Amino acid sequence: MSMGDTYLISGLLTKRAEMAGELSKLRQRMDAIAHDLAAVDRLLKAFGYQGEPEEDICPVVKRETVTRRGSLANDALDILREASEPMSAAAVADIIATRRGLQLPTARQRETFREHVRQSMRRLRQKGVLELLGTGNAVVWRVKP
Question: What is the superkingdom listed in this entry's lineage (predicted)?
Fold first, then answer.
């Protein structure tokens, strides 16, 4: 085994140990949540709830924010500055999503993200940075000259 292989193996062993430790912590957290969930279910029954909580109550997942304040506007402005011609907000949003590596698998997620970009671009227009060309569905944006 060469010296390079020794360093590689050492690094891989360290990384594996870190990942195993993280997995252990996650399992402990999952166990604690499952315990708390069972306690809530027992309280529901104790206070007269007749249904089956696991079947009747849809889990709620807190939404994580995808962007920092102002970052969509900055990204949109960068894209429009790089563009050779005016672009639609949807096209700008799609480029931002691609550059950020965002996974937007459903039409609803894509449209929500596009609407956030449109709102950011409208604010830039109000500040006099962007201008809107066209009407109706044929609207495109560019940096104000």
Answer: Bacteria
Which residues are CB-neighbours of 117 under 8 A, at least 6 positions away? 72, 76, 89, 92, 93, 96
pTM: 0.53
Distance CA 32, CA 20 (A): 18
Residue-by-residue pLDDT tens, the chain, 145 positions: 777 788 899 999 999 999 999 999 999 999 999 999 999 999 999 999 988 887 777 777 665 555 667 788 999 999 999 988 999 999 999 999 899 888 888 888 889 889 999 999 999 999 999 998 887 777 899 998 8
**140 by DSSP, 3-state: which?**
strand
How many CB atoms within 10 Å of residue 72? Answer: 24
- Amino acid (one-letter) located at 123: R
> What is the rounded distance in angstroms from the CA atom of residue 38 to the CA atom of residue 144?
58
> Tokens 């449209």 — which residue?
111
What are 108's two structure tokens? 């609803």
**Nearest-angstrom CA–CA distance, 115 and 117:** 5
The CATH number of the domain covering residues in 71-143: 1.10.10.10
